[in-house]
Amino acid sequence: MIDFGAGKMRKSILTALAATMLLTACGSMRDSFLNPGNWFGRSRAEAVDEGPVNPLIPKSRGLFRRKAEEEYRGIVIDTIAELRIERATDGAIIQVKGIANTQGWHNARLIEEEDDGSDTTLTYTLQAQRSPYRELIGPPQGREIVVAKVVTENDLAGIRVIRVKGAKNARSSRRR
């Protein structure tokens, strides 16, 4: 007597085992350059030139220029802790986590630098406004500031590096 059920069972077990192995192999793709989620890669810390530029002194304006309705008066955040760039349907989302030197900062923004000297680098500065009340030092978790900015495909045309600067460091991420 021939038993055909054992052969089918063996094939289904081998198929399930092969599918399991294939699925677990997908976990190693997380850090691979083939993964579309790794569009820019991980950020790296960089040193910032601490020149004589004082962010508290506003830039001068021309005589016949119109005055802006309300000028943003942010101060550069102390440290850039994390930079993440995620692909969006029409461009990218830049997400930055900074750590201020005290608590109580608000109205944070990523301010684009006009002339950084490179056509392939998009440079931003993380700025926020101080609280008018007493400032506490507190733990780093209480001083974190998270900001996100949407950048369109047109803005990213030709851009290979996105860089975000703070007062003490900068983080950049390269396009793969």
What does this 3D model show about the protein?
The protein is an alpha+beta fold and 176 residues long. A hairpin with a 3-residue loop joins β8 and β9. 16% of the residues are buried. It contains 2 helices and 9 strands, in the order αβββββββαββ. Helices cover 14% and strands 35% of the residues. The protein is elongated and about 90 Å long. The chain starts with a helix and ends with a strand. The longest helix has 21 residues. Strands 1, 2, 5, 6, 8 and 9 form a 6-stranded mixed β-sheet that branches. It has a 3-stranded antiparallel β-sheet with strand order 3-4-7.
Brief overview, please?
The chain has two helices and nine strands.
Strand coverage percent: 25-35%
How would a crystallographer describe the biggest sheet? 6 strands, mixed
| Strand segment tally | 9
How far apart the termini lie comes to: 61 Å
Shape: elongated
Tell me the helix content.
10-25%
Low-confidence stretches: none
Per DSSP, the total helix count is 2
Q: Round the Cα radius of gyration to an integer and report it.
A: 25 Å
User: Could you state the order of secondary-structure elements as H and E?
Assistant: HEEEEEEEHEE
Q: Which class of secondary structure composition applies to the elements?
A: alpha+beta
Arithmetic mean of pLDDT: 81
